[in-house]
Amino acid sequence: MLTSKERANLRAKAHHLNAIFHVGKEAVSPPFVAGVRDALEARELIKINVLDNCELEVATAAEMTASRSGAEIVQIIGRKFVLYKKSKSIKEGIL
Q1: What is the pLDDT of residues 61-91, one digit of tens each?
Q2: Hey, which of 25, 48, 56, 86 would disulfide with 61, CB 3.0 to 4.6 Å?
Q3: What letter does residue 92 receive in the DSSP assignment?
C-alpha cells in the first residue's frame, strides 16, 4: 500500500508520461493484462488511456487492471489512469 507521500511522488513522475496502453472495446482482456504486467516490470510506472468506445467506466477499468496485474492505482484523471508496481528486475526503483 502506497503512502500519501509516495503517491504524490509517483503522480509527479507520471505527469510527463504518455499513455502506453489503451483500454478499448475489448476492455481488460487477458492479453491486455499480460502486456500491462510486462510493462510494469520494465518501467514500474505506466499511464493508460480509456477510449470512448470502452463500455467500462474509467475507475472500473483502472480497478480491474490493477487487481489483475498486481499493481496499485496512483491516480485517475479524466480518461487516464496511472499504475505502479515495484519491479523485481530494477535494482534502483523509482520510489
Answers
A1: 999 999 999 999 999 999 999 999 999 998 8
A2: 56
A3: S
Q: Domains along the chain? A: 4-84 (3.30.110.60)
For the range 9-16, what are the long-range contacts, defined as Cβ-Cβ under 8 Å and sequence gap of 24 or more?
A: 9/95, 10/45, 10/74, 10/82, 10/84, 10/94, 10/95, 11/74, 11/75, 11/82, 13/45, 13/94, 14/45, 14/47, 14/74, 14/75, 14/82
- Mean pLDDT, the chain, rounded, equals 96
> DSSP per residue over 15-84, as a string?
TTPPEEEEE-TT-S-HHHHHHHHHHHHHHSEEEEEE-TT-SS-HHHHHHHHHHHHT-EEEEEETTEEEEE
Model-level pTM?
Answer: 0.95
